[in-house]
Design goal:
Structural class: alpha+beta
Number of helices: 9
Largest sheet: 4 strands, antiparallel
Order of helices and strands: HEEEEEEHEHHHHHEEEEHH
Mean pLDDT: 90
Low-confidence stretches: none
């Protein structure tokens, strides 16, 4: 659980550092080694959304290689993204700030922000403080709740097995009950507790909780996680 907590916190701190100014977002996706991938993009010009799921942007920058993917399960970058497998050896014994620094060193985030600086400026002009804080609440809370289960956050579609014939329908139900628009980027969590970009949480896929209301009332994010966790029935998550 401690290791899951450390990685989740590192991903959150990275997003928190760059979201308000540049619109950095994180999304979860599955691959050949399971569901534990985290991709990064800018909200002003997304490469990953419900109707458009590309792990890299169409326009290359730098040497043409975009390094915008890491793991939720450990600290590293897959070879298909960086050209070679990159791993932060001994990250389990390091402080979370060291994990963040390693990710910043190896991800091409600054190049991404520079490439889309015009789009980002337009995005900032229309993006509200409340929207920003709700998004950060989602990422932070999803990381805290999933780490309590020794796991990492997933998007709604990742909760159901790819061979489940009703998986798409179940995903749509989660999206509808949570009241979000895009199941690929507007929610993160575990099957027992999915948190939306809109400041709402769906517990046990039935009960909707206004976590934003809890936050503005003065409750800390950790305090909200403490209230949500006992409500999760059987910690039913997909391993």
């Amino acid at each position: 659980m401690l290791q899951a907590s450390k990685v989740n916190k590192a991903v959150y701190l990275l997003v928190e550092k760059y979201h308000r100014l540049f619109g950095l977002e994180v999304y979860g996706f599955s691959g050949g080694h399971g569901p534990g991938y985290a991709g990064f993009q800018v909200a002003a010009n997304r490469c990953w959304a419900q109707d458009r799921q590309y792990l890299n942007y169409e326009t290359p920058f730098g040497d043409g290689r975009q390094v915008l993917v890491t793991y939720f399960s450990n600290v590293g970058i897959p070879a298909w993204c960086a050209g070679e497998q990159l791993e932060f050896t001994g990250w389990e014994r390091q402080r979370t700030t060291s994990l963040v620094a390693w990710l910043e060193q190896h991800l091409t985030l600054l190049e991404l922000f520079d490439l889309y600086q015009s789009d980002i400026a337009s995005w900032r002009a229309r993006y509200t403080v409340e929207e920003s804080e709700k998004y950060l609440l989602m990422v932070n809370l999803a990381g805290l709740v999933s780490a309590r289960l020794g796991d990492f956050p997933r998007s709604p579609g990742q909760l159901f097995h790819p061979m489940d014939p009703s998986g798409a329908e179940k995903t749509n139900q989660v999206v509808s009950r949570l009241g979000i628009e895009d199941g690929a980027i507007d929610a993160l969590g575990v099957s027992g507790c999915m948190i939306g970009r809109n400041g709402m949480a769906l517990v046990n896929q039935e009960q909707v909780v206004d976590v934003w209301k809890e936050r503005v009332s003065g409750l800390s994010v950790q305090g909200i996680a403490d209230k949500l966790f006992p409500m999760i029935s059987g910690a039913d998550i997909l391993n």
